[in-house]
Amino acid sequence: MPAAHGPEEYTMDVTATLSLGDPLEPARKATAEMLQTRERTYSLPQPFYTDERLFQIDMQEIFQKEWLIAGMTCEIPAKGNYITLQIGKTRS
């Protein structure tokens, strides 16, 4: 019988989207280093909460890579109705 394991840990690979000319490349590398060296049972280092560059990386990695559900059809009951929402600094 296989040994029981705890929940798998997911780690975001912020360096996977590095490209030439990426202005956030230094911040991505610093973020990867902080994630690899942090104590797992402690909160994240302060820059994760206050650094604008890390906020931009979060917006790209979490919200701008895939389609997001914007609403349900029941929220738009008639032709011509619409909804607006804001994700990060982008209004749709």
TrEMBL record:
Instruction: Tell me the GO molecular function terms.
Output: 2 iron, 2 sulfur cluster binding
| SUPFAM superfamilies xrefs | ISP domain (SSF50022)
InterPro entries membership: Rieske_2Fe-2S_sf, Rng_hydr_dOase-A
Q: Which PANTHER family does the entry mention?
A: CHOLINE MONOOXYGENASE, CHLOROPLASTIC (PTHR43756)
Q: What is this protein called?
A: Uncharacterized protein
**Upper taxonomic lineage:** unclassified sequences, metagenomes, ecological metagenomes
